[in-house]
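Troubleshooting log. The previous run stalled partway through. Resubmitting the same three chains, unchanged.
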Amino acid sequence: MGNEECRKTGEFCLDPRTVYLAPDFVEACVQNNRLFVKGNEAVAMAALEAGCRYYFGYPITPQSDIPEFLSRELPKLDGEFIQAESEVASINMLLGASATGVRAMTSSSSPGISLKQEGISYMAGSELPGVIVNISRSGPGLGGIDASQADYFQSVKGGGHGGYRIVVLAPASVQEMYDLTMLAFDLADLYRMPAMVLADSVIGQMKEAVVPHPRPAVDLPAKEWAVQGKGGGEQRIVKSLYLGDGELEAHNWKLYAKYEQLRGKEVRWEEFLADDADLVVTAFGSVSRIAKTAIMQAREEGLKVGLLRPITLFPFPAQAYARITGRCKKVLDIELNTGQMIEDVRLSVTKDTEVFFYGRPPGAGSLPTPEELLEQIRKHY
Amino acid sequence: MRHDVFIAGFGGQGVLLAGNLLSLAAIAEGKNVCFFPSYGVEKRGGAAMCTVVIADGEVGSPVIGNPTVVIVLNQLSLEKYGSRVKPGGTLVINSSLIDSSAFARTDISTYRIPMNEIAMELGDARMVNMVATGAYVQLTGAVSDESLAEALKKALPERNHRFIPANMKAVAAGAQQIVAQAG
Amino acid sequence: MQQVFHRPVSLKDVQTHFCPGCHHGTIHRLVAEAMDHFELQQRTIGVASVGCSVFLYAYFDVDVVEAPHGRASAVATGVKRARPDSFVFTYQGDGDLAAIGTAEIIHAANRGEDITVVFVNNTTYGMTGGQMAPTTLVGQKTSTSPYGRQREKDGAPIRMAELLAQLEGVAYSCRVAVDSPKNLMVAERQIKTAFRYQVEGKGFSFVEVLSSCPTNWGMDPIKANERVGAEMIPYFPLGVFKNVGNL
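Second attempt completed without errors. Output:
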């Protein structure tokens, strides 16, 4: 099937003329027209398919499959892979590459993402696109490498200085690692801002069958701001410094307007058995998967339980909560932390909705099981 | 249809290969699969575990607290995970390396299979994982033998394809043990 | 009548914000002249740093990216890798390059990035108000070394041009000054040489330029200019420390 046809049907496509998915790698993992790959590998494949040819990173567990994959494949595509001296350097290399108008990416895990916050703030201020993948791990500090959602605040509230937001996408399957990475590049370009894919070691390390859709056709604005050398045209400047009277305030309102636009147009979420639910569980990423099994078990017991899973963490799907809690008055928020998303959930539900919380701060042995979540469902039902 | 299995042993016993193989076979049959590996912190010889969930519909959780089937390949895994088998579920023990005389759960089915001996008789101790896989497939019918044979081509690197017949013999031997013990 | 002196086309026709007697303006001019010499204006991407040099885009009529403090050479790495046909230079001060940006400059140099770094050493943090820099001379009083820099406590000033010359990836490293007509002429020539390295695709080039900072030194422009020769050059010797291609 050719790429054009794939685009129309959205089906599996391995046409090497138009889709690049690392042919040797695909050969090793293609099965029944699907690719059996790790979440991290799906991220790397999607980046290539999205046209990203520049990657800058620094090794850290549990995301190293991404730089390993790209260090192997990018040279074959005349792309650039740099293992930088630090996370700080790698985010700034991303800033530089992105400033010239190319699609570029970095990936890391929580402590490394902390180091990148300086660059992310500058990119937000300079209105630069760019994709940052956080296969997060537990903290604070060195913490551990366990699956964690403790970076929710850092990701969605603007992790660096200056009061900005970035797009934050939270995949819950290997297929979504693929699809949302590609979406991250498009949203970053559309809104001229950094976009983050936020997952953890569960989603990064698990393997599932992926249908590698070809890059969707999206109308993207020309990058008329990109620095490429004047080439006879007007001088272009990529900067975040605004010193003139009123300039910076206006700039901040301009950024804010984009965040509002995102809230209106780009929210994404999944509802699972939520229509008739008397209790709606809300969770994102890895723990939403665990919750799903618990919900299926609860349904077998006759409990009307559903799931509301934000896919975009910023913009947060507030309207979905408002609508669902118009009818269902009990929400159980489950997170791999001591309670972060719950603040946004509370702001989004209707006034008379009860919001319960169950959290497992990340660490060895702290990943909850479906049975454990079923207990919580029974308790609050 | 839903199947979930947890396989645990130490690095080198082929735990992850067994999980990959089951997953690939299930994908070949058009099913949805999630394979979730986990390891000890050691780079060599540490603990190796994986969960495989196979479903016609939503796979749901990649981790299962009380798996329907647990396969333990070494002593430590029995001690850590034997208690986790879902009531009414099944525990498969590699009796070559595990003393299970003290293990006394009566609410589950327990099979003791001398996997190392069987694998060695068939020519290679490394086929312990294939014996375990054969036992699992016989127990659950989660995937067909044909799919397993086909999946081996994917799971093993090209240079090892000559071992596929031997591996399938190990699978058959594992299955045979279940048949005999269920007797 | 022949015009023998004119504003470089790469430099905008605007007044700078630099203090009277500051060497930044002169250094800007030398850089712009080198740019004109190789006809680079249309394909240059400058990387501005944080400090007095941040307004690069206001004076140079070329495309500019503004980097976070100290990260100019990492940003330049990204720019050059993505646009290998462009001419990429950074313009950094001593706090930026030799303190907070040490890791970035060392590793960009060590990778042999095909970029040119102009490093302005005035022994102090200029824009933030004259605090002690890694290049502040021993005994020099600044707003954060009110008793003078102490070797035992603060270490000795870092000689970046010599340090970078040790790295395999560096093709060209030199130190110049612009405090006298003679030094200025050498500076002009060596900045061009540094540019030539990148123009010919021959690797990482580095020019350290000693500069005055009359305001923060608490000196009038003439005294400040004299200090460059009297105090700085004895510790920061002028010269070429590496020139692999003998360009």
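Takeaways: Residues 2-182 of chain B form a domain with the Pyruvate-ferredoxin Oxidoreductase; domain 3 fold (CATH 3.40.920.10). Chain B is about 40% helix and 20% strand.
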